[in-house]
Amino acid sequence: MAQYEDKLLDHAYDGIEEYNNPLPPWWVYLFVITIIWGGLYMFYFHIADVGPGSTDEYTTEVRDYQTKFASTIAAEAGVNWNTPNFEIVSDKAQLAMAKDLFAKNCVACHLAQGQGAIGPNLTDKYWIHGGGINNIAKTIALGVPEKGMITWKNSLKKTEILALASYIISLQGTSPPNPKPPQGDLFEEKK
Amino acid sequence: MAEHSTASSNEYQANLETFYYDNGIVKLFAMATVVWGIAAFLYGVYVAFAIFMPQLNFGSEFLTFGRIRPIHTNAAIFAFVGNGIFMGVYYSLQRLCKTRMFSDMLGKLHFWGWQLIIASAAITFHAGITTGKEYAELEWPIDILIAIVWIIFGLNMFMTILKRRERHLYVAIWFYIASWVTITVLHVVNSMELPYTWLHSYSVYAGVQDALVQWWYGHNAVAFFLTTPYLGLMYYFLPKAANRPVYSYKLSIIHFWSLLFIYIWAGPHHLLYTSLPDWAQSLGTVFSIMLIAPSWGGMLNGLLTLRGAWDKVREDPILKFMVVAVTAYGMATLEGPMLAVKSINALSHYTDWTIAHVHVGVLGWNGFLTFGVLYWLIPKLWNTKLYSKKLANAHFWIGTLGILTYVIPMYIAGVTQGLMWKQFTPEGVLQYPNFLETVTQILPMYMIRATGGTIYLVGACLMVYNLVKTAKQGSFVKNEKDQATPFPFQYIKETGERQHRWLERKPMAMLFVATIVIAIGGAVEIIPMILIKSNVPTIASVKPYTPLELYGRDMYIREGCYTCHSQMVRPFRSETERYREYSKVGEFVYDHPFQWGSKRTGPDLHREGGKYNNSWHYWHMNNPRDISPGSIMPAFPWLLTKEMDIQSVSAKIAAMMTLGVPYPVGYDKVAPQDLKTQAKLIATQLVAEGVTDVKESAEIIALIAYLQRLGTDIKAK
Question: Mind spelling out the 3-state secondary structure of B380-438?
Answer without folding.
Answer: HHCCCCCCCHHHHHHHHHHHHHHHHHHHHHHHHHHHHHHHHHHCECCCCCECCCCHHHH
